[in-house]
Automatic annotation (TrEMBL):
This is Lysosomal dipeptide transporter MFSD1. Keywords: Lysosome, Membrane, Transmembrane, Transmembrane helix, Transport. It is found in: Lysosome membrane. It catalyses: L-arginyl-L-alpha-amino acid(out) = L-arginyl-L-alpha-amino acid(in); L-histidyl-L-alpha-amino acid(out) = L-histidyl-L-alpha-amino acid(in); L-aspartyl-L-lysine(out) = L-aspartyl-L-lysine(in); L-lysyl-L-alanine(out) = L-lysyl-L-alanine(in). Lysosomal dipeptide uniporter that selectively exports lysine, arginine or histidine-containing dipeptides with a net positive charge from the lysosome lumen into the cytosol. Could play a role in a specific type of protein O-glycosylation indirectly regulating macrophages migration and tissue invasion. Also essential for liver homeostasis. It comes from the Eukaryota. The chain crosses the membrane at residues 33-52, 78-97, 109-131, 205-229, 258-278, 298-321, 341-359, 365-389, 427-449. Its main location: membrane.
Length: 470
């Protein structure tokens, strides 16, 4: 009887929610598609400022090195200091959102860290203090990765099922658009300020970076609006704040299988050959291929845009899976189910692109487009492999540990890449990237052999079980 009354109470509550929604216009109704599209707009631009400012150093590599009197190793510290806090925060970000701040306040706090970090970064350039610029990147890093966690949490809270694939794709697309716009605009802003001031120096750099901070202010505004809309929806629909769903237990690390550690190594070694290269790529194209600064920026931003477009295709593929002619990478991976094979293909084509850049004078557009395609293929094949080798209750820990190791590797290898470039030049740097990718290929072969061995032992066991045990 009590259960029946409780059930009827829930029905009455649902009918009450529907009644409330029925009296609202579509744009104001939290359950209506138009309102959720409005929320999606602010959700997508939540990380725009973070991605725009993350690659400010790459777009202004020559200017930063000249104006601040740096060598390449010191320049790459700007990327290393971004990664250091995320060695730990990959574990804590979801916990802080769930248990401490809540999704709304947490998102505003992390967006504020991004804005404050960029302002400190710009102030360091204005004051000609490189240590202050590094401090700014550290503060920026505290907010950057955790803001991405908050963005994904909002997506899960507002969209369900197949809609999530499209939403994640659009979010990732806007992230890459932020990087692309940065590569295209920030150099022009620098030159305009230089023309206005009539001189080149750290003041010009500082003003340019301070203008870039306006994109972070825009993202903070999106966080505030999202918080208002989410709180309003919570009151109307009587729902709880979104949770990340992550269960982080460091004690699970001791139970990780050998194949998962190989996946971690593949992840680190692969991303080391991508992001530090993009950070240093502009001068490489100018020195080796005699590109102009405009052309060098163009090829860097084109690759960032290609990564974004292809990753969107990967995420959208499930949403439009009924279209049999969709030439989407994620569709191929899902249909074949052979993630290890696609990871091998992605690593091999990335290795080929780096060899082309290192040992030939072919048009670098070929190699860089291949690099963008390979990156997108690896992204949709490698990360799901974690779910294949660990139980569901360990997924949060496994992904947190994977992101932490990735950030640790990027922090260390970014500094190493800068030192190699200063001491030996771009050819040796490319050889370093090639060595990392060769390490990846070896580890993929080990995973393949490990899977084959396990499946063979299982097949033999199953054969004798059926034949001799009734």
């Amino acid at each position: 009887m009590a259960e029946r009354e409780e059930y009827e109470g829930l029905l009455d509550e649902d009918e009450e929610d529907e009644g409330v929604s029925r009296h609202l216009s579509p744009l104001c109704d939290p359950t209506h598609l138009l309102h959720r599209i409005l929320v999606l707009f602010f959700m997508c631009f939540l990380g725009f400022g973070s991605y725009f400012c993350y690659d400010n150093p790459a777009a202004l590599q020559t200017q930063v090195i000249q104006d601040m009197s740096l060598n390449t190793a010191s320049f790459m510290q700007l990327y290393a200091w971004y990664s250091w806090p995320n060695v730990v925060l990959c574990f804590l970000g979801g916990f802080l959102l769930d248990r401490v701040f809540g999704i709304r306040l947490g998102t505003i706090i992390f967006a504020s860290f991004v804005l404050i970090g960029q302002i400190i970064f710009a102030a360091g350039a204005l004051a000609n203090h490189f240590w202050l610029m590094n401090l700014g990147r550290f503060v920026f890093g505290i907010g950057g990765e955790s803001l991405a966690v908050a963005q994904n949490t909002y997506a899960v809270n507002w969209f369900k099922g197949k809609e999530l694939n499209l939403v994640f794709g659009l979010q990732l697309s806007m992230a890459r658009v932020g990087s692309t716009v940065n590569m295209n605009v920030i150099g022009w802003v620098y030159s305009r300020i230089e023309a206005m001031l009539g001189s080149v120096g750290h003041t010009t750099l500082g003003i340019t970076l301070m203008i870039a901070a306006s994109t972070c202010l825009f993202s903070l505004t999106c966080a505030l609006i999202l918080g208002f809309l989410d709180r309003r929806a919570e009151k109307i629909l009587h729902k709880e704040q979104g949770k990340t769903g992550e269960v982080i237990k460091l004690t699970d690390v001791k139970d990780f299988p050998f194949s998962l550690w190989l996946i971690f190594i593949i992840c680190v070694a692969y991303y080391v050959a991508i992001f530090p290269f993009i950070g240093l790529g502009q001068v490489f194209f100018i020195e080796k291929f005699a590109f102009t600064t405009v052309q060098a920026r163009a090829i860097n931003r084109a690759v960032c845009f290609l990564m974004g477009v292809l990753c969107v295709c990967v995420c959208v593929c499930v949403y439009i899976i009924s279209a049999p002619a969709s030439p989407l990478l994620g569709f191929m991976v899902d249909r074949t189910g052979r993630n290890v094979l696609w990871v091998m293909l992605a690593v091999a084509t990335t290795l080929l692109s780096h060899m082309m850049l290192a040992f030939t004078f072919w048009n670098p557009w070929i190699a860089m487009c291949l690099l963008g395609l390979s990156y997108s293929l690896l992204a949709c094949a490698l990360w799901p492999m974690v779910a294949f080798v660990v139980p569901e209750h360990q997924l949060g820990t496994a992904y947190g540990f994977m992101q932490s190791i990735q950030n640790l590797g990027l922090a260390l290898m970014s500094m190493a890449a800068g030192s190699i470039l200063d001491l030996k030049g771009y050819l040796f740097l490319e050889v370093f990237f090639i060595a990392c990718l060769c390490c990846d290929i070896v580890n993929v072969f080990i995973i393949t052999f490990d899977q084959f061995k396990a499946s063979s032992i299982y097949s033999i066991y199953n054969f004798f079980l059926k034949k001799y045990i009734k």
